[in-house]
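for the recovery benchmark. tokens below, seq after
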């Protein structure tokens, strides 16, 4: 029997040699060398052998997928085709010829999944090219998505083992022949049919496998839903095609009568009239199909659908004209008839679809006047956003909101109508319509902070609820919907807009890459994770020393539908040995360093902590990134590094110097990105203000003149990714934060937003600056020269520090110049002053530590 298998494999290999050569040639052109993929597998008697396949995995580029074993596979489109058709497995005929495998048998597993107890059947039989497991799990990723389990592959592995054991016990010639037929059949069935096949094949005598039966029932239930959906879609599509056939026939007949002045058309005397109608019908239906007229829903017919109808009509007419001019096929037709038919076809096809939309939107939808629980809303802003919201509310009563009209400060719009809803007048007149509406919807995503605050004040004065729409980017992208309506927040007051990005160049350096983010649990670190996920990296290694933040972030990422492999690691960047193991295990290609201490007053009290993390921790990451040939290293810095006046800003400036000093690496490109305060930081002063307001005050502010630059974490993370795409090594990027905002103004606006008055309901007190802090005018900025980049909100700063000086400082740090020195602040400050030329401490007086040395009594 084995000799027969080997001879058959040899015959097939020779017969398929032309096909194998074509596949090899195409693979060489598209993917390069090597053509053959070799991987160890476990065979009979647990002997290891190398299995052969056509290589489908690319080193970079392509679509990144995760195999059942957790390996990262970057598969090209050619590779996906080979996998889908199983042509990639043809070289396994060599394994059969060598005697490693047989045609039918258990599917060979990789060594790390095999143990002698559960794979005991390998003592009796060789693994096979095909079998129950190969056929059933042909579309393994789809089946994995249907299994509700913490470890879905373990469930699949259990099923594979059950099937392989079943095959071994029932092994016979008829069984093998059945599996050969089913293997060939499975190659020509669509994906979904594979699941029906799965259910069919599992009707085997293994009722003792309750876990297997449970999964079969789950898949059967899910597939029943799919089958019902397919059935409904197919029925609807048949009705649409039938209506189009009637329209095509009616249009052709009517155009024939119009073209012959309503006498009997010459065309009707043709003996092959039925044949001609069938050809025209086929051409027009095919054009409709090509232009996707059978994919949409008539109840939602829009201008885009009308445009598709025009395309289909002109396409079919163009084809008919070609036949008319080049053959006798359409003898009896005239150009006049063809163009009349074109006009009538467009008219009939469009009118039927628009009629269905009108029926659904005006007749079948309940009238708002008959629904007493439908909320009346007034729309503030009569621009594109307001128009969209009005149209959405009128077309979809499920929102249970009915627009009564608009308010807008553009005097040219007053008295005009939008979707039959009047623009009443100015926004300040909102209170005049107090009795006419239940809620106000603010549709002004581009409004400035002051303008927006005035709108909020007007809405509050009316005493009715009000909500605001999301950003303009959602409107432009077409993703805007009423689910985006939200309560007004401090972010709306500050008025930060979405940024435009060059998505293509960001995708080039993020997609399919192994990304390491240090400080991933922090505000900017976690937002970098969210932004990176959009570009589908192959792997995200998340390092943070806070287990709660890391756990929360992991749950958030895993709740999303993504193929990105996630590796959260609880560690500290101060530990070089642990970091070294992380780099060795995961070999990151891109590193974002967002781990640092940032609270000014605390770092003034404990400067050695800032040195250990901000400097030595950065040095650890920089060293390892150079050693492991990381492609790009992006340091998250601060705008305060421009003019260091405290420990925090001085250590961050020194971290920048470390990165610049390491930029001599031939492969790794180091860069830094500066920006200011994050308005939505987990422990920002905004959250402190909210707590103080909720508790009745007082609201504490350092100084009436204190001001800060603000940016949302989302905006900052997006611009960091963009900066990383621009960076060629050695740059210090600076993000445009806009104009500074006074803390007192934000506090007052936040108090008013809470429905109270500052100073009256909530007292405001000024407590003075803390150690390391300054107010405007106390310090003079260096105003380092800047150059533009390809983005208006990103520039490159050029500090007045020579390359020689940078390397000298970086080498001193590497040589251990910054040792805690028994936690002596003065020594550490003097060392920092010598290392950072720009550093001029604002306050040199002794700072009282927060934790004092324990007394003898306490020690006892």
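predicted aa per position
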């Amino acid at each position: 029997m084995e000799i027969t298998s080997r001879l058959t494999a040899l015959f097939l290999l020779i017969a398929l040699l032309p096909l194998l050569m074509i596949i090899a040639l195409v693979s060489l052109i598209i993917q390069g060398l090597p053509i053959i993929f070799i991987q160890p597998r476990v065979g009979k008697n647990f002997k290891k052998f190398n299995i052969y396949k056509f290589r489908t995995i690319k080193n970079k580029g392509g679509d990144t997928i995760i195999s059942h074993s957790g390996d990262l596979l970057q598969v090209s489109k050619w590779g996906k085709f080979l996998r889908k058709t199983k042509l990639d497995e043809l070289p396994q005929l060599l394994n059969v010829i060598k005697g490693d495998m047989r045609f039918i048998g258990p599917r060979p597993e990789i060594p790390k999944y095999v143990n002698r107890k559960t794979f005991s059947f390998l003592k009796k039989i060789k693994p096979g090219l095909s079998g129950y497991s190969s056929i059933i799990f042909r579309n393994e990723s789809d089946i994995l998505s249907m299994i509700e389990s913490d470890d879905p592959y373990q469930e699949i592995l259990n099923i594979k083992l059950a099937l392989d054991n079943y095959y071994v016990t029932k092994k016979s010639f008829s069984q093998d022949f059945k599996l050969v037929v089913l293997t060939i059949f499975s190659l020509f069935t669509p994906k979904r049919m594979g699941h029906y096949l799965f259910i069919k094949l599992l009707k085997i005598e293994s009722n003792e496998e309750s876990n297997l039966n449970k999964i079969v029932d789950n898949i059967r239930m899910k597939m029943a839903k799919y089958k019902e959906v397919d059935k409904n879609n197919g029925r609807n599509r048949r009705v649409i095609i039938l209506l189009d056939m009637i329209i095509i026939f009616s249009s052709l007949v009517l155009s024939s009568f119009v073209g012959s002045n309503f006498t009997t058309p010459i065309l009707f005397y043709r003996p092959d009239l039925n044949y001609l109608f069938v050809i025209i019908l086929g051409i027009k239906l095919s054009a409709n199909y090509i232009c996707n007229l059978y994919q949409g829903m008539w109840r939602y017919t829009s201008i885009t659908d009308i445009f598709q109808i025009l395309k289909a009509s002109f396409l079919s007419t163009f084809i008919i004209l070609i036949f008319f001019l080049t053959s006798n096929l359409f003898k009896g037709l005239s150009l006049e008839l063809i163009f009349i038919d074109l006009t009538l076809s467009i008219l009939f096809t469009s009118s039927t679809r628009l009629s269905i939309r009108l029926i659904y939107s005006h007749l079948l939808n309940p009238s708002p006047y008959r629904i007493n629980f439908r909320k009346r809303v007034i729309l503030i802003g009569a621009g594109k956003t307001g128009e969209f919201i009005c149209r959405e509310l009128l077309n979809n009563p499920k929102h249970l909101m009915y627009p009564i009209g608009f308010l807008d400060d553009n005097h040219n719009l007053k008295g005009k109508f939008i979707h039959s809803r009047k623009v009443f007048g100015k926004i300040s007149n909102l209170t005049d319509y107090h009795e006419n509406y239940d809620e106000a919807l603010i549709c002004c995503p581009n409004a400035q902070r002051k303008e927006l605050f005035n709108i909020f004040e007007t809405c509050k004065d009316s005493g009715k609820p009000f909500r605001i729409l999301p950003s303009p980017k959602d409107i432009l992208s077409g993703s805007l919907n009423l689910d985006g309506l939200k309560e007004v927040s401090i972010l709306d007051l500050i008025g930060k807009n979405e940024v435009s990005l060059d998505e293509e160049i960001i995708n080039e350096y993020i997609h399919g890459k192994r990304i390491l983010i240090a400080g991933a649990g922090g505000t900017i670190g976690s937002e970098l994770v969210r932004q990176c996920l959009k570009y589908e990296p192959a792997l995200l290694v998340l390092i943070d020393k806070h287990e709660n933040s890391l756990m929360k972030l992991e749950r958030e990422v895993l709740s999303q539908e993504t193929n990105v492999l996630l590796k959260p690691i609880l560690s500290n960047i101060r530990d070089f040995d642990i970091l070294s193991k992380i780099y060795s295990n995961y070999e990151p290609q891109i590193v974002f360093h967002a781990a640092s201490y940032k609270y000014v007053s605390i770092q003034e009290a404990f400067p050695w902590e800032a040195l250990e993390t901000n400097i030595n921790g950065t040095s650890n990451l920089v060293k390892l990134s150079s050693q492991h040939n990381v492609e790009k290293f992006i340091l998250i810095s601060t705008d305060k590094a421009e003019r260091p006046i405290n420990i925090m800003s001085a250590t961050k400036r020194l971290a920048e110097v470390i990165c610049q000093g390491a930029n001599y690496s031939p492969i790794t490109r180091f860069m830094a990105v500066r920006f200011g305060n994050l308005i939505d930081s987990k422990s920002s002063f905004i959250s402190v203000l909210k707590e103080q307001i909720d508790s009745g005050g007082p609201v504490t502010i350092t100084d009436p003149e204190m001001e800060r630059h603000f940016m949302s974490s989302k905006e900052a993370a997006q611009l960091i990714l963009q900066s990383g795409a621009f960076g060629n090594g050695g740059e210090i990027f600076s993000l445009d934060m806009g104009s500074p905002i006074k803390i007192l103004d934000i506090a007052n606006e936040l108090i008013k937003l809470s429905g109270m008055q500052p100073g009256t309901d909530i007292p405001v007190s000024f407590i003075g600056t803390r150690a390391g802090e300054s107010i405007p005018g106390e310090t003079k900025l260096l105003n380092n020269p800047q150059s533009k980049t390809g983005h208006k909100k990103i520039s490159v700063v050029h500090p007045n520090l020579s390359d020689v000086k940078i390397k000298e400082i970086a080498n001193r740090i590497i040589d251990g110049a910054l040792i805690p020195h028994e936690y002596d602040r003065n020594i550490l400050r003097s060392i920092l002053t010598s290392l950072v030329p720009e550093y001029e401490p604002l306050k040199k007086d002794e700072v009282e530590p927060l934790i004092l040395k324990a007394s003898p009594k306490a020690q006892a």
